[in-house]
Design a protein that fits this description.
The chain is of the alpha/beta class. It has 19 helices and 14 strands. A seven-stranded parallel sheet has the order 3-2-1-4-5-6-7, sandwiched between helices. The chain is globular. About 1% of the residues have low confidence.
Length: 424
C-alpha cells in the first residue's frame, strides 16, 4: 500500500512536469517530426513484442534483432524510436529486407514518457515482451509495463559511471521498477545495473554490435557505388567522424594542422548531429578553411579539399574509402563512438582517451586494432603518420574481423532468453 501510494504520487508530479515541458518540445527541431504521434496513441495496435530503440546506435541493434528473429508462430513486432536518425535507419534497413514470413512489423515514433500517454500506449499495444536497448530506462514506461504484466528485458545493456551516480540519487524509485532481466555487455555494466535494480536478474552477453557492423556495410552496396564515384582515386581520404560540440575547437586544430602538414588529401568532416552543420560552416569560414558541402558535390573530387558531410546515413560507407579515421566524442568525456566500424574496413582508426560507452570493446582492441591517443596533438601526429606511411589495408581488415568473429553470439543469447519467456 505504501509503495502504491508513493508511486502514484510520484507519477502525478511527473505527469505535471511533462505537461509543462511538452509545449517547448513541440518547437524543438529534433522532436518536431512525428510529434503528434508521440502524444496521441490512436495509431497504435496490439503487438506481441515491442522493441524500443532510442536513436541511431540502438536502431541498428533493433534492425539486427528483427532480421535474425525466427519465430515459431505469427509474431507482431512494434519497433519505436525517439529520433529522426533512428526512424530513418529502421525504415531504410527493415523495409528493403525480407523478414521471416511469420513476422508482422510496424515502425512508429516512441511515445513521450508522460504517464498519461504511456498508460494509454501500453493499454493499446499490450505487449507480452518489451525489449529496451542499451540504456533505455524510463520510469513511466517501466511502471505501466509491469502493471500490464509485460516481461521486460534490457538487451545489450550498458550504463556509464555518470548514469549510475544519477540513478542512485533516486534509488527509492528504481527499486520498484526493476526489469525482469538485464543482459549486459560486460561485467562492469552488469555490476552497475545491479546497483540500480537490485531485484532484477542480471547476466552478461556478447555485444550485438559485433554481429551487426559488417552486415550493415554489406547492405549498402548502392550507396557505396555512389560515394565511390565522388571520392578521389589518387588522393588519400581522412575522416573526422562523429564530432561532438564540446570537442569542435580541438578538432578544428587537428583539421588545420593535418591540412598544413599533409596538404595532398581530402578530409571529410562528419558532425555527430546534423544540426551542427551550420555551426561547422561558421567555424570553417572563421578559420579561412575552404570547404564544400557534400550535398553540393555531383562530380568526382579530384583536388585536395575539405568536405563537410551534410547528408545523413553515409558515414559507415565512407569508412570503406578512408585511409585514416579519427572517431570523435573521445577528446572530451562524452562516452566515445563506435571505433570498431572503421577498423573493420581496414582504415587506420584513431580515438581519443575517452570511450566509456565502448569499454566493452577496449580490453585488447587498443593494443592491436585501434590507436588510442591522449591529446589532440597526439591525434594529429597519428593521422599524419598514417597518411605518410600507408599500411596493408587487407591485413588490418582481417585482423579486425578476426577480433569481431571471436566475440559473437550475443544475438543468439538474447533471443534464447526472450523466446523462452514468450513461449511460457
Amino acid at each position: 500500500m505504501t509503495k502504491e501510494f508513493f508511486i502514484l504520487n510520484f507519477f502525478r508530479l511527473y505527469n505535471i512536469l511533462w505537461a509543462l515541458v511538452l509545449p517547448f518540445l513541440a518547437k524543438h527541431n529534433r522532436l518536431k517530426p512525428g510529434f503528434s504521434k508521440r502524444v496521441h496513441m490512436r495509431h497504435h495496435r496490439k503487438a506481441d513484442i515491442w522493441i524500443q530503440a532510442a536513436s541511431a546506435g540502438e536502431a541498428y541493434l533493433a534492425v539486427h534483432l528483427i532480421k535474425t528473429l525466427v519465430p515459431e508462430k505469427p509474431t507482431k513486432i512494434l519497433a519505436t524510436t525517439i529520433t529522426r536518425q533512428g526512424m530513418d535507419i529502421l525504415k531504410s534497413q527493415l523495409t528493403r529486407t525480407r523478414l521471416h514470413p511469420l513476422i508482422q512489423l510496424k515502425i512508429e515514433w516512441s511515445p513521450f514518457d508522460k504517464p498519461s500517454i504511456i498508460k494509454q500506449a501500453v493499454h493499446i499495444i499490450h505487449p507480452e515482451i518489451m525489449i529496451l536497448l542499451e540504456t533505455e530506462i524510463w520510469p513511466a514506461l517501466l511502471w505501466y509495463l509491469k502493471r500490464n504484466r509485460t516481461r521486460i528485458y534490457i538487451v545489450n545493456a550498458r550504463l556509464s559511471a555518470k548514469s549510475v551516480s544519477q540513478y542512485q540519487k533516486s534509488i527509492f524509485l528504481w527499486k520498484h521498477l526493476a526489469p525482469d532481466m538485464i543482459l549486459a555487455t560486460s561485467d562492469l555494466y552488469a555490476d552497475r545495473y545491479r546497483q540500480i535494480f537490485k531485484t532484477a536478474r542480471v547476466h552478461t552477453m556478447a555485444n550485438i554490435k559485433f554481429e551487426s557492423m559488417d552486415s550493415d556495410l554489406q547492405d549498402n552496396t548502392d550507396a557505396c557505388k555512389q560515394i565511390e564515384h565522388l571520392l578521389p582515386k589518387s588522393l588519400p581520404l581522412t575522416v573526422l567522424a562523429s564530432i561532438r560540440k564540446p570537442e569542435e575547437k580541438d578538432v578544428l586544430k587537428i583539421l588545420k594542422a593535418i591540412t598544413t602538414e599533409y596538404p595532398d588529401q581530402v578530409v571529410a568532416v562528419f558532425p555527430r548531429h546534423m544540426h551542427r552543420i551550420c555551426a561547422w560552416e561558421n567555424h570553417l569560414k572563421r578559420h579561412k578553411l575552404n570547404y564544400r558541402l557534400k550535398s553540393c558535390i555531383s562530380d568526382p573530387v579530384k583536388t585536395p579539399q575539405i568536405i563537410l558531410w551534410d547528408t545523413f546515413g553515409e558515414l559507415k560507407t565512407v569508412y570503406s574509402f578512408a585511409r585514416v579515421v579519427f572517431v570523435g566524442a573521445s577528446l572530451k568525456p562524452l562516452g566515445g563512438q563506435n571505433f570498431i566500424e572503421p577498423a573493420v574496413t581496414g582504415a587506420v582508426t584513431i580515438t581519443g582517451p575517452y570511450y566509456d560507452d565502448f569499454a566493452w570493446a577496449s580490453d585488447t582492441i587498443t593494443e592491436h586494432i585501434v590507436i588510442q591517443k591522449a591529446t589532440w596533438t597526439q591525434v594529429k601526429k597519428a593521422i599524419v603518420t598514417a597518411l605518410e606511411n600507408p599500411c596493408d589495408r587487407s591485413w588490418k581488415k582481417q585482423k579486425a574481423f578476426d577480433y569481431i568473429l571471436s566475440r559473437r553470439g550475443g544475438t543468439r543469447t538474447a533471443w534464447q532468453k526472450i523466446l523462452k519467456a514468450f513461449d511460457e
